[in-house]
Amino acid sequence: MTSIHRGAGLLFALVTAFALVPAGAAQASAATWTLNPGNQRICVTPEHGWPQTYFLASVTGSTAEVIETRIQKLPPGSSSQGGRIYPDELNRTGAFVGFVHVSIAPTPVGEYAAELRASDGTATQTAPVTISVKDDCLHGT
User: Fold this and answer.
1) Which residue has the higher pLDDT, 140 or 139?
2) Pairing relation of β-strands 79-85 and 95-104?
3) Contact (CB, 8 A) for 74 and 104
4) What's the confidence (pLDDT) of residue 41?
5) pLDDT value for 26
6) If you write DSSP's letter for every residue of 2-62 in order, what string do you get?
């Protein structure tokens, strides 16, 4: 009789453990942070671009995972090494502004609609950013 009770107890413990794992995993993966959209714009000249600069990723909320950031949909030849927002940075105050690296290559005059992307591996959020390429950024021509 004792071995039957032990077996039933072990079976109950295993079923309970397996039932709790998915619920805990689903709760941990729910995004509790928000990428705050802004009206970010950078102006560069067509001959030089801007080899090393940054956009800002303003995030509020909390996270258990590192939030990876980058700029996508860039003009040809441009790149983004991105950035990271670590849980302790965000969780300390509930708001954090991270730097997102970008290198803008020399590119033809025009307006380029790029995208700031933030992802914790489960949830991904985006916000528009603008890259203006002009002959004269100070005077708008």
Assistant:
1) 139
2) antiparallel
3) yes
4) 94
5) 34
6) HHHHHHHHHHHHHHHHHHHHHHHHHHHHS-EEEEPP--EEEEEBTTTBEEEEEEEEEEEEE
Instruction: Write the DSSP assignment of 63-132 as a string of letters.
Output: -SS-EEEEEESPPTT-EEEEEEE-HHHHHHHSEEEEEEEEEEPP--SEEEEEEEEEE-SS-EEEEEEEEE
Structure tokens at 100: 């997102």
User: Which residue from 67, 29, 23, 74 is spatially nearest to 51, judged by alpha carbons?
Assistant: 74
What lies within 8 Å, CB to CB, of 119 at 6+ separation is 67, 68, 125
pTM of the model: 0.74
Residue 137 has pLDDT above 60, yes or no: yes
